[in-house]
Amino acid sequence: MNTIVQRVSGWMDAIERVFSIIIAFMLGFLAFLVGWQVVARYIFNTGIFWAEELALLSMMWATMLGAAGCIRTDSHVRLNILIDRLPARVRLWLLTIMDGVVLWFAFWIVKEGIVLAQRTMGGQMSALRIPIGTTYIILPVAAVFMMLFTVVKMFERIVGQSLSKGGTR
After folding, report:
1. Strand-pair partners of 131
2. Of 6, 67, 83, 98, whose CB neighbour count within 10 A is largest?
3. Total structural domains in the chain?
4. Where is each Tripartite ATP-independent periplasmic transporters DctQ component domain found (predicted)?
């Protein structure tokens, strides 16, 4: 069981690294695009008509992929100073409950994100000429990865806990 968890954990780490590369590219592109838009508007008295929509799309996608990646790397904000002072067994239960809340919330994002994307697919972004739902399709996609990362993290924690007690799983 331990080798399976390690293998899946390696895959999840690889996915998170890919997310980080995509996010870095998107944020770099976003900074360039917004900077160029400011220069074009205030120095050349013109603007890039599609820049605002593409910036919105990039920001939405980078944010949601980043939120999923933060679950994998355990980078979200929480009060570790309190959690770390708890006994190991209580800490394990508390973290499992917290992961359950994350799973519920991510499931809700999947469900409602699909509804939102479907409802807005009929509209079109005026400058980019792509469906508005393209902006929102990242919600269920990222939430599925949030759920996947959370479940794997739970298994890692449980297997790690059993190994620290002398178990062989």
Report:
1. 124
2. 67
3. 1
4. 31-158
